[in-house]
Amino acid sequence: RKHLTEFIAEASERLSLRTILLEQNLAIAGKWPDDAFFRNFLDSQKDALLSEFESLNLSKYVEEVATAIVEAKIKLTDIPFMLRLCSAMYQRYSDFGILFFDAWKKSFSSHKDLKNTNLSKLRVDLALFADLIQSNIFREAEP
């Protein structure tokens, strides 16, 4: 009888949790920000990103992080922070430099037709890219 009571209590708890999650998920449906929201880089996110970075294990997401950094819409004033973030990624994950460089190559190859290119973003990207080279995040190929 005791086992039956415990089973009923656990089943009721799981059902209640599912009901709550269903209601929350239905309430949020259609209210998500568009993809551009996640590509914009805000000053208010800087400290949170660095503090969260210290506690996260991103080893399975290094390529996604590299791509997200390349695609982020940043300003010239964001470059010092981006250098710190990229340096932290490079120091922690050995394959970051290679994956990051590949993401940059893809980005730059998409700028072949300058008519469809956002020149302001390209200017900031080139400045960041130059600083990344000077910071030795992109190593020379070994002979």
TrEMBL record:
Family matches, as Gene3D superfamilies: 1.25.40.180
Organism per entry: Schistosoma japonicum
Signal peptide: none
SUPFAM superfamilies: ARM repeat
Protein name: Regulator of nonsense transcripts 2
InterPro entries attached to this UniProt entry: ARM-type_fold, Nmd2/UPF2
GO BP: any one term: nuclear-transcribed mRNA catabolic process, nonsense-mediated decay
A single GO cellular-component term on record: exon-exon junction complex
